[in-house]
């Protein structure tokens, strides 16, 4: 079975070299660059990848980059059946392509398969560690995949690929349309990629969470009224915990005095509730629960940013965290 590969990146440095050299068995590897200034183009050329440079006149998005890479692959070989998408800060596990292709061959109703993405340096910072936990998930049928995925060309073309204008959350949005077209998505119990988040500062984590809130609002605006109410729950949680509750407490304190500040106890209670639902060491559970609760504040800000952009018709570019 033939498959091509599309890697996307922007100033990934040595991570890009590791990414491109890890892709084994592809008939062609296309690297799509989004305005790098660090020598990424030379790295891709030396690795033997075909290079696509995005037009800087339009806002950069991962969705746009992946679509451009796919179009280059498909025009070069319209008989291509499968494409492996991979982010430039990831390294493909050598056994993954054959496992993914074998599953897709045996299950023609499945549009795409993903496996386990792991953080390369989970102990370097709590933020990398949180990413590693985020990538974890049960094997079996799934509602969505992330940036790294082996996808069936027929299914991808049928639904029109990614939406170029989505600056975040483009993968789950594509999955909504795939499932609406009666395709299925699967997660295999297999190692797929090693990821390097490179997050060592709180500000990076905050900006990544802000991007997540933007993605919730954008996804809900597109498919919130669909039967699965895409991203509605996530968006409402961010509004409730990150905006409405603190605003209500502040207003109540200004009106009635200091005693409404006791309502702030809702946050440690929420942390306790989330930690009790998880498994593992208590310290780990509390850490995850604390950051999940804290993330509601940047997520709410991200949704406010989306509302402002939507109201004024502003086309926002990438929200980068590294």
TrEMBL record:
UniProt-recorded Gene Ontology molecular function terms: glycosyltransferase activity
Name of the protein: Glycosyltransferase
Entry superkingdom: Bacteria
SUPFAM superfamilies cross-referenced by the UniProt entry: Nucleotide-diphospho-sugar transferases
EC primary class: transferase
Keyword annotations: Glycosyltransferase, Membrane, Transferase, Transmembrane, Transmembrane helix
EC number per UniProt: 2.4.-.-
Glycosyltransferase 2-like domain ranges (all copies): 11-119
InterPro entries documented for this protein: Glyco_trans_2-like (IPR001173), Nucleotide-diphossugar_trans (IPR029044)
Range of residues in the leader sequence: none
Transmembrane segments: 239-267
A Pfam family recorded for this sequence: Glycos_transf_2
């Amino acid at each position: 079975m033939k498959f091509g590969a599309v890697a996307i990146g922007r100033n990934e440095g040595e991570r890009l070299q590791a990414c491109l050299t890890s892709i084994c068995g592809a008939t062609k590897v296309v690297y799509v660059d989004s305005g790098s200034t660090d020598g990424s183009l030379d790295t891709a050329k030396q690795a033997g990848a075909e290079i696509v440079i995005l037009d800087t006149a339009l806002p950069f998005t991962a969705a746009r980059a992946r679509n451009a890479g796919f179009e280059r692959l498909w025009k070069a070989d319209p008989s291509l059946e499968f494409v492996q998408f991979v982010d430039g800060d990831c390294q493909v596990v050598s056994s993954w392509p054959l496992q993914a292709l074998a599953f897709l061959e045996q299950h023609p109703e499945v549009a795409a398969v993903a496996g386990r993405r792991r953080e390369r340096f989970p102990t370097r910072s709590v933020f990398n560690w949180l990413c590693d936990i985020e990538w974890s998930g049960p094997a079996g049928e799934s509602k969505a995949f992330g940036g790294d995925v082996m996808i069936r060309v027929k299914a991808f073309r049928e639904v029109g690929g990614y939406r170029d204008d989505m600056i975040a959350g483009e993968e789950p949005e594509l999955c909504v349309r795939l499932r609406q077209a009666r395709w299925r998505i699967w997660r295999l119990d297999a190692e797929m990629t090693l990821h390097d988040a490179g997050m060592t500062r709180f500000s990076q984590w905050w900006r990544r969470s802000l991007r997540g809130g933007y993605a919730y609002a954008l996804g809900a605006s597109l498919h919130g009224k669909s039967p699965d109410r895409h991203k509605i729950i996530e968006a409402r949680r961010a509004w409730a915990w990150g905006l409405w509750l603190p605003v209500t407490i502040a207003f109540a304190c200004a009106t009635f005095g200091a005693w409404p500040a006791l309502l702030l106890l809702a946050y440690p209670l929420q942390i306790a509730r989330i930690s009790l639902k998880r498994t593992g060491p208590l310290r780990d559970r509390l850490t995850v629960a604390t950051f999940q609760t804290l993330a509601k504040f940047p997520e709410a800000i991200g949704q406010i940013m989306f509302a402002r952009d939507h109201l004024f018709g502003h086309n926002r570019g990438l929200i980068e965290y590294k």
